[in-house]
Task: structure prediction
Amino acid sequence: MHKILVLTILILAGVNLCLASDDIFNHPSTSKEISKLMPELKNASCKFEQEKYISSTVLKSGGNFKFIKDKGAIFETLYPIKSTVSYTSSQNRQMNDVIVAISNKNYAYLDKNFNLYYKNENEKWIVGLKPKKGSAVSSQLNNIIIKGKTDIDNIKIDMVKNGITDISFKCTAN
Result:
């Protein structure tokens, strides 16, 4: 479920995300409003760096991220341990359904499971997601913050039990 949430956020954002304060949750919005402000999703190849904070421990990793609009997303971790996680129709049907929904601007999944927030700050946008009470993800996730301008720049995932994951991207359109 954690991987599904990460990818959902990446795709929803679809743009270069900037750093901003966590007061995003003071700016409620709707999927209809946000979808008007989001750019069309394009194929992207990115370098990513991830920091996972669990109590006083920080785990760092990084590698390559690819988003292929008609197929899905791939995280290729290069350090500290090499691994690849693919979210494509043949390997993860549920994740692919989320990708297709976002690509087609069908936000039924997000509306069902999250309260949405949006803020524009210095030509950069911020999207926040907080699980709705009783949703499938509410027992696992506190919130997600996505920041960008044209491509995804940063995603911060705050989990109930597994700490905070902060992922930074440097993308180029394909």
About this structure: Confidence is low (pLDDT under 50) at residues 1-21. Strands lie at 28-29, 44-54, 57-68, 72-79, 83-88, 114-121, 124-131, 141-148, 152-159, 164-173. DSSP finds four helices and ten strands in the chain. The first helix runs from residue 2 to 13.
